[in-house]
Design goal:
Layout: H1 2-5, E1 12-16, H2 23-29, E2 34-39, H3 42-52, E3 59-63, E4 76-82, H4 91-104, E5 105-116, E6 123-124, E7 127-128, H5 134-141, E8 145-156, E9 162-172
Parallel strand pairs: 1-2, 1-4, 2-3, 4-5
Antiparallel strand pairs: 5-9, 6-7, 8-9
């Protein structure tokens, strides 16, 4: 979805909740030049930097709570979140998140959010989550976000379980 959403490798991409994910490795390998990884955990960011070695120097790293951080206005062309939004069980946290997206993503740009789908787990790592279908997720974001695509994926965890994920691609108007 990122490649579909990005105009090219110079596109500014933020990976929200990037943690120890290897998505940043894949983006670097594909030649993306403007990557930001945001996570609430310094430990996760440090693990990513260590794994990437010298390649990590070309990435902008942010340790912050996405509902509270002060991101630069209109600074990203692709917003990517796999598995942060579904942990926001408080309506005020979800409103704060959407406010961040609305402020930080350039008009006409893409937002990719992945959450647990309707048949996904009700808890993850001992924490409550909110499950979504494409319509209920889109309702959280509102009319300024035009849904372009959505799909479900069955994710096989390292622990041998299967979790249903929903991916939505929107354009912010």
């Amino acid at each position: 979805m990122i490649e579909k959403a990005a105009a090219g490798t110079s596109t500014s991409v933020i990976d929200v909740g990037g943690g120890e994910s290897t998505l940043v490795d894949d983006l670097i390998a594909r030649g993306y030049e403007s990557i930001t990884v945001l996570d609430i955990s310094q430990t996760a960011i440090d693990a990513n930097k260590k794994r990437l070695g010298k390649a990590s120097e070309g990435v902008h790293w942010l340790v912050a709570d996405i509902t509270k951080v002060d991101l630069e206005p209109c600074s990203y062309s692709v917003w990517h979140d796999r598995a942060v939004f579904h942990f926001l069980t408080s309506p005020s946290d979800r409103v704060g998140y959407v406010r961040q997206v609305s402020r930080a993503v350039k008009p006409g740009s893409s937002v990719i959010v992945s959450t647990f789908g309707p048949e996904g787990p009700t808890k993850c790592s001992g924490l409550e989550v909110v499950r979504y279908d494409a319509e209920s997720l889109h309702q959280e974001f509102g009319v300024r976000f035009r849904r372009l695509d959505s799909c479900k994926e069955m994710h096989h965890t390292p622990f041998g379980t299967v979790q249903q994920f929903l991916y939505c691609l929107c354009r912010i108007e």
